[in-house]
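Translate structure to sequence.
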């Protein structure tokens, strides 16, 4: 066999035909799927982490399965994935590697038992793997203390504080909460990704507007820039609930990826090339008691108003004829839950017809906690005489006094006249207008008095508006303007669509070029640009190439794309980062397969 190969190698054309034939035969065979699992390293101290690896030989398809829970081990649910295809002795070797980050929480020997995994609809078994966790060494303890101190320092670099008027509120009560975001001046923060977000389903909050910015705020011996929002917070369910806020800010850091921002307290990216990272900023969680409203002494007119209020009322007139409407305005002023305040109730009255009220609020539109709520009723008298406008009753709960209060509107006398009676003029026969047009009048039949001079008219029938030239001119001018604007808008839109298509074609052309050069680094960089462009186009983003990985995933979730597509793109973005920053070799992936997968993903991003 060796002599045959040597003789064939002397003829290059015959040699290459032989190798291509062996390669095709190897691809025609269905490889057997084999599994291997182990920890790397197999023994660690308590303060260190390790990797749980699952190696799949013979398949590159995405598996489905769930790792068993092992007490004492915290295993990540988001593994790093590496795929590799190689040719060994003329046989194609396919390899898929899944790496799960693992952190032990106690010492001992821990075993992940064998667990099922599904590939291409077939169920396979991943073998068991064992990890030994040893007691931490003195150096581990020192490193752990440094890490804890670093995390505490990082908490002081950016944090959120929010205030409540007291540790308890009543169910349905609205209070004003001040939420402040503190950013240390020495940290290279670039922007705030999103305003603080409430982390509790037991409270509802008003929308956050523009923040109030303050500089040189001293806290913990450091200077901060603060951004504060005032919001109206309303409790929805009674009981004890936790409330916290979190936000995300962008920070410029060094290119190293070993520690959180590579100890940003001692490394300033301003003096070198850096990259932006997203930093999650959180507040401490507060336990707030939401008390139910007392039932003792609750009036019948109570409909959920909580706060401290006073009322006033007025009518637009006090003398009307029967059937004329009267406007009654009932105003509630003070502090409380105006966002959930219902309209007050009327006393029963047969002398008036009362319509539903119109609502209007005057005051702090941001929190809607302090101001005046106006209820405007239209009431119609049904009988004549000197009447009294029905009274309005309003009840509320005062959370400071912890009791119920009731207020009524003042009495408004109303004089209602009976009005004129309707007199039937009798049966009158309508005259057709055509009869007037058919008659001809002469000047002898018309006369003009000295007291009413004027121009002689040949007919009393007015001319139709449709026969007016001026009318049609005023109709055609705006119609022509609208048509012109519609044409210009359509033309601009067509140019925009054409420009987007040209950009996409140019990116695909570059992707094919890097494929032909087998330049994986530039190939994946161009691949990322295409995904940024397509995702940004879905939301009309002004600069899609500035979107980070998390922002791309967030935009895809907003437009409700398929979960499988979002998961695939998330893995691709991780792979792009590995090739861009982790220095992965160029021969680890087959670019042709990646190009075919890219075409499928681009087709789905529409």
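Result:
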């Amino acid at each position: 066999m060796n002599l045959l190969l040597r003789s064939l190698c002397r003829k290059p054309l015959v040699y290459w035909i032989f190798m291509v034939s062996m390669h095709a035969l190897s691809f025609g065979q269905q490889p057997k799927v084999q599994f291997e699992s182990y920890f790397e390293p197999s023994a660690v101290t308590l303060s260190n982490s390790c990797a749980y690896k699952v190696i799949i030989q013979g398949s590159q398809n995405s598996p489905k399965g769930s790792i068993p829970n092992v007490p004492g081990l915290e295993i990540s649910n988001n593994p790093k994935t590496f795929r590799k295809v190689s040719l060994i002795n003329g046989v194609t070797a396919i390899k898929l590697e899944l790496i799960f980050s693992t952190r032990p929480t106690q010492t001992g020997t821990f075993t992940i038992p064998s667990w099922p995994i599904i590939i291409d609809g077939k169920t396979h078994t991943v073998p068991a793997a064992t990890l030994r966790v040893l007691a931490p060494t003195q150096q581990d303890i020192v490193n752990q203390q440094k890490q804890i101190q670093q995390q505490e320092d990082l908490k002081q670099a950016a944090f959120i504080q929010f205030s409540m008027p007291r540790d308890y509120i009543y169910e349905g009560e609205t209070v004003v909460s001040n939420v402040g975001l503190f950013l240390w001046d020495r940290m290279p923060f670039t922007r705030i990704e999103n305003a603080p977000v409430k982390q509790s389903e037991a409270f509802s909050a008003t929308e956050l507007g523009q923040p109030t910015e303050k500089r040189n705020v001293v806290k913990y011996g450091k200077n901060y820039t603060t951004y504060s929002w005032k919001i109206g917070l309303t409790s929805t369910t009674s009981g004890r609930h936790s409330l916290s806020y979190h936000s995300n800010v962008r920070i410029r850091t060094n290119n190293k990826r070993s520690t959180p921002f590579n100890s940003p307290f001692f490394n300033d990216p301003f003096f070198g090339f850096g990259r932006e990272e997203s930093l999650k900023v959180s507040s401490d969680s507060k336990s707030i008691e939401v008390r139910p409203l007392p039932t003792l002494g609750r009036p019948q007119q109570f409909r959920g108003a909580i706060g401290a209020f006073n009322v006033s009322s007025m009518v637009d007139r006090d003398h009307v004829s029967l059937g004329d409407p009267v406007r009654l305005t009932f105003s509630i002023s003070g502090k409380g839950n105006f966002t959930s305040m219902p309209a007050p109730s009327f006393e029963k009255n047969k002398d008036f017809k009362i319509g539903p009220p119109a609502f209007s609020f005057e005051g702090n539109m941001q929190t809607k906690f302090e101001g005046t709520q106006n209820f405007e009723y239209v009431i119609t008298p049904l009988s004549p005489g000197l009447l009294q406008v029905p009274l309005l009753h309003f009840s509320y709960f005062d959370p400071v006094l912890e009791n119920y209060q009731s207020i009524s509107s003042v009495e408004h006398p109303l004089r209602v006249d009976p009005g004129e009676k309707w007199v039937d003029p009798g049966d009158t026969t309508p005259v057709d207008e055509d009869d007037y047009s058919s008659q001809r009048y002469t000047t002898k039949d018309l006369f003009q008095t000295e007291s009413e001079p004027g121009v002689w008219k040949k007919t009393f029938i007015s001319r139709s508006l449709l026969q007016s030239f001026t009318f049609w001119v005023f109709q055609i001018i705006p119609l022509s303007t609208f048509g012109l604007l519609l044409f210009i808008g359509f033309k601009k839109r067509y140019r925009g669509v054409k420009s987007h298509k040209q950009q996409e074609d140019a990116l695909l052309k570059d992707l094919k070029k890097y494929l032909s050069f087998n330049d994986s680094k530039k190939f994946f960089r161009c691949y990322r640009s295409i995904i940024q462009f397509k995702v940004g186009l879905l939301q009309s983003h002004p600069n899609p190439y500035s979107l980070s990985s998390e922002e791309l995933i967030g935009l895809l979730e907003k437009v409700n794309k398929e979960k499988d597509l979002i998961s695939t793109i998330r893995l691709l973005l991780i792979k792009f980062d590995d090739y861009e920053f982790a220095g992965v070799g160029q021969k680890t992936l087959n670019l042709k397969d990646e190009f075919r997968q890219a075409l499928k993903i681009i087709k789905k991003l529409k």
